[in-house]
Amino acid sequence: MSSAALTAYGADPSGLVYGYVFTADGVGRQVDTAAAGAWLAERDARPGEFIWLHLTGVQAATMNWLQSHLELSEDFTDALKEGSRSTRIELVHASLIAVINDVVYDLSRENTLQVATLWMNVTPRCLVSVRIQPLRSVDRLRAAVKAGETFGSPLALVIHLLREQADMLVHIIRSATEKVDGVEDKFLLGRLPERAALGGIRRDLVRLQRLLAPEPAALFRLLNRPPAWVSAGDTQDLQQSTEEFSVVLRDMAGLQERIKLLQEEIVAHIGERTNRSVFVLTAVTVIALPINLTAGLFGMNVGGIPLAEDPEGFWRVLLLVLLMTAGAAWYAFRRGPE
What we know:
Layout: H1 3-7, E1 16-22, E2 28-31, H2 33-41, E3 50-56, H3 61-69, H4 74-82, E4 88-92, E5 95-104, E6 114-123, E7 126-131, H5 136-146, H6 154-188, H7 195-212, H8 216-224, H9 232-298, H10 313-333
């Protein structure tokens, strides 16, 4: 089976994976393509209701169906074509454009970081979400809708997804913190950990922050001047979600700084060990220098070797070598390694 077929699994010929119509009470009921098209055609006669359409971006028929039933923002279609993955929610004319990401992160680094992106167009009575790969956060949102959880507006669904993203980021930070704790414990016990592991976690945290953290400028503009159709309750929930993200990002920045300091300590410790090793090698070389020099001079098979006829010549030379070796050892170990 091809990758396109896998990512489009569950979608009908129009690209609709599933759709839900929410009543004025916030309870959703699932609809198919025909029912969704009928609702869109009669939406003016259904006050208080709104619809959520979740589609796959793999099929070419998806955009054709959307454009035939809805007036989508050009920025939304451009974001789909460009494949923009930076998490954001911003106001474009009368609609909101939102992008969120799901990640599958393996701390053991046996598998690469997997990212799935969801693009959303939010209007007062319609939420259109398009994905290429399935997202766990969307599956959890669908499960909440099927379980009877109520949502008062399309933006409430987006806020639920943002909170899911923040919870996922918290889980990743906790797992990374446990990993860093283990590395730090080994270091405190005198066992040098692998610096590559810490460096990999630090790089992943930077990438995750770039992928999962909402763009602050667009988000603050939206919070300061929300559109008229956004209720005060949704604005407050979005503000709370933003604050949760801020706390998580501060924790992530703190973890990155902790990893940086731990890496610096490991580098310093490795440098100290290297200096001691170089010092020992240098000291041994200096101490052995008188012995090697004397042995080389007295080992030459030439005439005129001093003390060659002296019966106590060996002991005299040995005493001289010992004195010179002791002097070299004193000089070598006088200051110690720096």
